What does this fold into?
Amino acid sequence: MEDPEAKGKKKRGRPGKQAPTSNKKPRKSPTDKAVGVARGRGKANGVAQHNGDGGDPVTLFEVVKLGKSAMQSVVDEWIESYKQDRDLALLDLINFFIQCSGCKGTVRIEMFRNMQNAEIIRKMTEEFDEDSGDYPLTMPGPMWKKFRYNFCEFISVLIRQCQYSIIYDEYMMDTVISLLTGLSDSQVRAFRHTSTLAAMKLMTALVNVALNLSIHQDNTQRQYEAERNKIAGKRANEKLELLLQKRKELQENQDEIENMMNSIFKGIFVHRYRDAIAEIRAICIEEIGVWMKMYSDAFLNDSYLKYVGWTLHDRQGEVRLKCLKALQNLYTNRELFPKLELFTNRFKDRIVSMTLDKEYDVAVEAIRLVTLILQGSEDALSNEDCENVYHLVYSAHRPVAVAAGEFLHRKLFSRHDPQAEEALAKRRGRSSPNGNLIRMLVLFFLESELHEHAAYLVDSLWESSQELLKDWECMTELLLEEPVQGEEVLSDRQESALIELTVCTIRQAAEAHPPVGRGTGKRVLTAKERKTQIDDKNKLTEHFIMALPMLLSKYQADSEKVANLLQIPQYFDLDVYSAGRMEKHLDALLKQIRLVVEKHIETDVLEACSKTYSILCSEEYTIMNRVDIARSQLIDEMTDRFAHSVEELLQEAEEADDDDIYNVLSTLKRLTAFHNAHDLTRWDLFGNCYRLLKAGIEQGSMPEQIAVQALQCSHYSILWQLVKITEGAPSKAFMLLCDLLMIFSHQLISGGREGLQPLVFNPDSTLQNELLNFVLDHVFIDQDDESQSMEGDEEDEANKIEALHKRRNLLAAFCKLIIYDIVDMPAAADIFKHYMKYYNDYGDIIKETLSKTRQTDKILCAKTLILSLQQLFNELLQDQGPNLDRTSSHVSGIKELARRFALTFGLDQIKTREAVATLHKDGIEFAFKYQNPRGPEFPPINLAFLEVLIPSSKFMSESMSERREDVWLPLISYRNSLLTGGDEDHMSVTSGSSSKTGSVRSKKGRPPLHKKRIEGEQSTEIKESSVEGSWMMRNDTLQTPGALQTPQLTSTVLRENRPAEHMPDPDSEPGSENDFVHKDTIVEILEIMKVTVVCRRIFRRGLMEDDAEPIFEDVMMSSRGQLEDMNEEFEDTMVIDLPPSRNRRERAELRPDFFDSAAMIEDESVSKTFLPPLLSVSHFDPPGLNPT
It folds into this structure.
């Protein structure tokens, strides 16, 4: 390919306008052209395309982006428009490239005709939206990924459809190449990226055209030569002239295409392959690889390969990866190796060094490329180059190791002459021809000096050399058979290595997953992989059932080899013993294991024997009885020997010789190793071990090794006994401990029994936490966990009901400790918070516990309730973060639990006044406890907890919710609910005194309220002030925090019969916004609580909302100092006593009161015991409530 300027061609660019030829239609006016192009653009496959706005035809960019039409039809439509008016068609194509770059600007026809490309690009750059860095090629999502594919396909189809005429008109291609060249040199990344991709795909399409032209030229030349070589009489001169004319035309087209490709390559590729953006560099390298593979005669030379070689040193892994993949496509074709020889010699060292690249993907592709080079020419890589790849089979990154294993297999473990190797194996009497390859594998493993990583080596070779690694017959032959003449004998080190590799291959085949440290974990096997695993397991089992006893017999004196061989049975399919009637091989194996135990005292060997017995003794296999008999006989002999040697040692005491010590130590080591995996309690090893330890303490002459082994054996003995004791015992132990704590509690000294004070035991905080944790772990469990942990049939309903009764008893025992003040009441918070979730199972127990604790201490009970809500809120914050979705089901669940708690306070407001005030006070303090880390102007992170204090969301008006979508909404909602409560209570009082006069009864003989202290004018003022102070009237005056005004003291108006507007707030002080956020907010809301009648109404809302008639609620005050004044005030004013409405009484007959403690069933069986009453609930009936 020559420089276009050297060929005398004119410089690429948009040519001057030419007059239309006679066979073309007359040129239209610009307006007509615009309309014509719009019409043409709006059709695809003969159907008009419309956008979503007003039904106008979509642009070429939108057609390609939507991808609903085939690119063939889109391109054909554009070609038709180009034939009608090429200026407007090119304008459409230019705007297509501009819009694909993400630019909102549009090139107009005047700009196209009167401005140079540089001016047009500068104008488009000014209209580019620089606020966002995204553009179509970089936008995420499947739609834009599809757009990129459609964009590339459009360019390819465009050149393919135009390859016979339009691309040679010296107008369309010149214009497009000139535009893309200018855009590729832009400072705007979007222009540069998009135009480079378009130019590279355009180049690829042109290379395909050039290749087709070259083929046509060759065919024409052959036809011409054939015709010319004919004798003069048979030669057709006219045909020769046509062939010459055709060859000349093809040559001209070839020159024109080469001219275009040179323009793109020198104008765009040479500058962009080293662009600052890695994506652009990757595009260039990817496409040049395509050109070299597609048209190797023109591009596969050093002039183009050097760009790929230089880019191998790119600092971005993405670009290096594209280089390697491009080279892989070339090295795959062996016919291209001669052209790649110089490149290989020049850049081989760099490619080999990239096998250690920090990017694992790059390293994997580099190893694969080196493997391709090895396949093409074994002499291309030196031994040093190969060794650099060999050690990567031990890499912790599995893809790298597997790729290195493929290289190792190609280099060392591929059979070069299979027929000759099979003939040699037959002459030596072996069934497998892989003997030499296995020997080579052993040598490689030993020379790598990484013996502890045999499992890694096997895993690396598993995908490429499975046939070799699964040849267990050959491995066994090498270990068992004597070497034939002419073969070297396996050394002891080589035998150990071969046994270790054999065990690793068995493990890999049986488990079908990489070893520990390779991969992220066990993946789910496919059906095919699962079948292969089963077949391999059966194959290795059938082979080693017969071979393992012989291997143990040969190597029983070598502890290292025996320890490895004894790992094999754990991978057996033990059913094969009975299914294949191979019990004689089992007896042979047990005999060899017994001999190994008697010969060795090494810990690893004895533990391997113990583990093998444990596996063979599995109850699921029919061979268990046979193995258990053999094991018991072995233990009996060792126990008798141990007891006898201990007697001799203790009798001789200080006179014991080394033989006596060795006899005790060797036998004790064997028993200790077996005691680790087997329950040897019935042999009572603890007694003799204790005698040894006691003698050592008293006499001080016991050898250290014997003392250590005796301690170890005693330890195992105690552990096995603990296992027996604790099986199914935790629940019983818990119940026993609860009963003991109840018996020896502070109630022990009641009734004049102060003399028993020393016996009183109060559990400390640690014990209380342990009890609570036990309840949380064993009581509050999901049904799925219960079913999984339950033995037997999971569908057995009787077992499930029995398990539920057991858990109810555990919960009742712990709640009993809380009720009688043995366990601190705050521990009940963890119980109360499960009230809603486990209502069907434990709702009655938790409700009764709540009722009893409230009778004990109302204030502490209220603190416990708010603590349980706080715990749930904190758990929700940990799960969802600080930005809570206040409409989620989790938040609604906490609100519903708060509403249920509120209903348990009952209707006696005088008694529960302080408890409710304490609950709100703790809730408010929790809401403002932690400052927002972003600054004081942001709400506290727990502010949303205020909504939990509002039992129903109806206290917040819908209009305010729509208008106030800010983070302070919980505070505003809570504040308005407080103010709303006071107003509605006042309205209920006045309405009750006016409309229900006939039903009003005096208390303590006092006259009715409307006859004392209330006059008509004052009553009118009260009504007006209550209406004006309601939340509906004040909704428009709400302010955000920081400008929140002091609310009117509505409840004070009720008490003193004065208008609210004349009542100043003596306690409130104006403050700054920060003061309000940190401290004054709490003070203000607490002040609201002191002067409103809300909290009672809030916690009774659920009982009142369905009543036909309002029920009077008294004023609540949180200050103990004002309690006496409050009582005096109620003596004078509280004379209204409304009876329940008939509707309420009728509903009470139809449904149970779920918060009436009298509705619970008494447990007579529990109350008759010597312990205090457990709970007013039956633990032997299904959980539920008695609707009385």
About this structure: The longest helix spans residues 189-228. The first strand starts at residue 43 and ends at 44.
